UniProtKB/TrEMBL annotation:
Mg(2+) binds at T65. DNA binds at R290, R309, R314. Homohexamer. Forms an RuvA(8)-RuvB(12)-Holliday junction (HJ) complex. HJ DNA is sandwiched between 2 RuvA tetramers; dsDNA enters through RuvA and exits via RuvB. An RuvB hexamer assembles on each DNA strand where it exits the tetramer. Each RuvB hexamer is contacted by two RuvA subunits (via domain III) on 2 adjacent RuvB subunits; this complex drives branch migration. In the full resolvosome a probable DNA-RuvA(4)-RuvB(12)-RuvC(2) complex forms which resolves the HJ. The RuvA-RuvB-RuvC complex processes Holliday junction (HJ) DNA during genetic recombination and DNA repair, while the RuvA-RuvB complex plays an important role in the rescue of blocked DNA replication forks via replication fork reversal (RFR). RuvA specifically binds to HJ cruciform DNA, conferring on it an open structure. The RuvB hexamer acts as an ATP-dependent pump, pulling dsDNA into and through the RuvAB complex. RuvB forms 2 homohexamers on either side of HJ DNA bound by 1 or 2 RuvA tetramers; 4 subunits per hexamer contact DNA at a time. ATP binds at L19, R20, G61, K64, T65, T66, E127, D128, F129, R170, Y180, R217. It comes from Streptomyces alkaliphilus. This is Holliday junction branch migration complex subunit RuvB. Keywords: ATP-binding, Cytoplasm, DNA damage, DNA recombination, DNA repair, DNA-binding, Helicase, Hydrolase, Nucleotide-binding.
């Protein structure tokens, strides 16, 4: 339940529909992906064909679901939304595929988490718009071929490298989504503020953007918490000061680190003089599970250049010392 988690929480799900850009023009940032996708979709429309299958890779909260909906809107096609973990049997996938309309967009989130048999069925469906439905069991089982209408698969994954090559190769277009620059997040915040009817000063938006970890979902969530604070403690206007104070209250610091991130850095710096220290030892010092430190806290700390994973253990970088307001101990020989 971290305020800076990239995965959606219940409130995100409830409000995100209202905040989603509806077409490519409204979609902020990701210039290259947007330009390429625009060409792919325009060309398909001009040919009167369904668009090629699209693979979107990137961290949670960067806009993959939003883009899939935009693809449907631009193609004036209906969209079906499912996910890899929801498709555990090939039969689950066959049921979805056989009910698609011509030209429909099928969005499969976390496509790397589909079961193997479903994945193999998907290969054939993507390539030949056909599936073999197996009826019966054992020696008497027969494969009944089923023709499918042409459709566009939009797959989303956190990393394209997680996909087996045969699946990856069947996408006509692969887009890698990057983390957003602060200026882009400021635009996301201004746009969302308009939709939520919150008045935000440019410096207020900049303050929130700097703490949003390059992720629009987090920017929108922090904006909502800052809005609450501005309503209760101020007159509703989000200034730089209101944003900064509100996010201090929620323990999200100037760089987007929360309490967990800071306690990992604190332990590493204060107890182990910046490391190297083994993951298990660090986790015990923080009072968290190994996995929590490794999978929840570390990826962002590594991305921010505050912590390095070395063969000898975890090491704090000089930036970590200065971010936490501490002076590194002098090295031997200095
Ligand atoms: P993902 O599927 O990658 O986890 P989503 O598409 O659900 O991410 O995006 C999360 C939220 O962030 C959406 O509600 C949307 O409002 C916002 N968002 C994402 N990308 C953009 C963008 N480029 N411009 C504006 N808002 C965005």
């Amino acid at each position: 339940d971290r305020l800076v988690a990239a995965a959606p929480d219940g409130e995100d799900r409830a409000v995100e529909a209202a905040l989603r850009p509806r077409d490519l023009g409204e979609f902020i940032g990701q210039e290259r992906v947007r330009g390429q996708l625009d060409l792919v979709l325009k060309a398909a429309r001009a040919r009167g064909a369904t668009a090629d299958h699209v693979l979107l890779s990137g961290a949670p909260g960067l806009g993959k679901t939003t883009l899939s909906m935009i693809i449907a809107a631009e193609m004036e096609a209906p969209i079906r939304i499912s996910s890899g973990p929801a498709i555990q049997h090939a039969g689950d996938l066959a049921a979805i595929l056989s009910s698609l309309q011509e030209g429909e967009i099928l969005f499969l989130d976390e496509i790397h988490r589909m079961s193997r048999p479903a994945e193999e069925m998907l290969y054939m469906a993507m390539e030949d718009f056909r599936v073999d439905v197996i009826v019966g069991k054992g020696p008497g089982a027969t494969a009944i071929p089923l023709e499918l209408p042409p459709f566009t698969l939009v797959g989303a994954t956190t990393r394209a490298g997680l996909l087996p090559p045969p699946l990856r190769d069947r996408f006509g277009f692969t887009a890698h989504m990057e983390f957003y620059a602060p200026a882009e997040l400021e635009r996301v915040i201004h746009r969302s503020a308009g939709l939520l009817d919150v008045e935000v000063r440019p410096e207020g938006a900049a303050e929130i953007a700097g703490r949003s970890r390059g992720t629009p979902r987090i920017a929108n969530r922090l904006l909502r918490r800052v809005r609450d604070y501005a309503q209760v403690k101020g007159d509703g206007l989000v200034t730089r000061e209101i944003a900064a104070t509100a996010l201090e209250v929620y323990e999200v610091d100037g760089r987007g680190l929360d309490r967990l991130d800071r306690s990992v850095l604190n332990a590493l710096l204060r107890l182990f003089a910046g490391g190297p220290v083994g993951l298990s030892t660090l986790a015990v010092a923080v009072g968290e599970e190994r996995e929590t430190v490794e999978e929840v806290a570390e990826p962002f700390l590594v991305r921010e250049g505050l912590l390095a994973r070395t063969p000898r253990g975890r090491v704090a970088t000089p930036a970590a010392w200065s971010h936490m307001g501490l002076t590194p101990p002098r090295q031997r020989g200095e």
